[in-house]
Specification:
By secondary structure, this protein is mainly alpha-helical. Helices cover 65% and strands 2% of the residues. Helix 6 runs parallel beside helix 8 (167-181). 39% of the residues are buried.
Length: 294
């Protein structure tokens, strides 16, 4: 599924192109203020960047400093414990260790703690950045916190928060990728489907790729296919892209395993039609059938 570019991992806005970020950062600010943001972004330390931004609105100042720390966190050694074998094991930084990672999170949270009007320019951005922190930077698995922050980014955008980068819409895909990394295909499909319902072309492509990935591993498919939404996705995929052999075996499996569901009823129809075509055209593709039976 569409993921961030390598460069995008280093900035809280993800894979958004730099020219687009530059244009978005100018919205609502004077030329002098935008020039100051560029100077802050070029700094290697969030504290120093924050000190530069005295003439900026507080949400912009905090967010830009957080973005500097977020970027720097990827090149930091980060907090670690050294074991007897000499190897470093990442750990949560303690409160006395103001790592770039910790400071980025604290500044994102500070933006979100501002009154609604005072965070309008960067509230959506900060929620999105905080979600990416919990998904990618945090040493522990905090998917629930990432989910909450992604949802907050969408809520703030709906309430009128500044979102020229389309981070609210992109948050569905970023959140889906977070679930895929943790082998939650059902959650990922639901998020991509929601993103697609808002007109995202990339989400449609991501759903196709997820379906391909699931069908390529039939031995693990059974535990992932119980969701009616996943069943609909796979049925749609095999009808559009699959061969008759795969469609027939998938349809038969759904009909046998979930006879009362939409997927089961539709699967029975697909299996019957595909097996009829296969019988009429040539002997059943035994290799495909064996693959699905495991």
């Amino acid at each position: 599924p569409g993921g961030d570019t390598d460069a995008g991992h280093y900035d809280p806005e993800g894979s958004v192109a730099e020219p687009d970020i530059s244009a978005a950062e100018q919205k609502g600010l004077s030329e002098q203020q935008y020039t100051l943001i560029k100077q802050m972004r070029a700094d290697a330390d969030g504290n120093a960047a924050y000190a530069l931004g005295k003439i900026l609105p507080e949400d912009v100042r905090l967010y830009t400093a957080a973005a500097v720390d977020f970027h720097q966190a990827w090149t930091d050694a980060k907090c670690a414990e050294v074991g007897d074998d000499g190897k470093e094991t990442p750990t949560e930084c303690d409160d006395e260790t103001p790592s770039h990672e910790r400071l980025a999170r604290q500044r994102f949270e500070a933006v979100l703690a501002l009154p609604a009007k005072a965070r309008n320019l960067r509230g959506v951005w900060a929620a999105y950045g905080l979600a990416r922190h919990y998904d990618e930077n945090s040493h522990t698995d905090q998917l629930d916190k990432a989910d909450t922050a992604f949802a907050l980014a969408r809520k703030l955008a709906v309430e009128g928060g500044n979102d020229p980068l389309g981070l609210a819409l992109d948050s569905f895909g970023a959140q889906a990728r977070a679930h895929l990394k943790r082998d939650d295909f059902t959650g990922a499909v639901a998020l991509y489907a929601e993103q697609a319902s808002h007109g995202s072309v990339s989400a449609t492509s991501s759903l196709r790729i997820v379906a391909e990935r699931m069908l390529s591993k039939p031995k693990t498919l059974e535990k992932r296919i119980a969701s009616p939404l996943v069943q609909r996705l796979l049925i749609s995929y095999v009808q559009a892209y699959g061969n008759s052999g795969e469609a027939a075996v998938l349809g038969a499996f759904l009909a046998r395993s979930y006879p009362e569901s939409f997927g089961g009823r539709q699967g029975a129809k697909i299996a019957l039609a595909c097996y009829a075509r296969l019988h009429a055209a040539a002997p059943t593709n035994q290799a495909v059938a064996r693959r699905w039976r495991g």
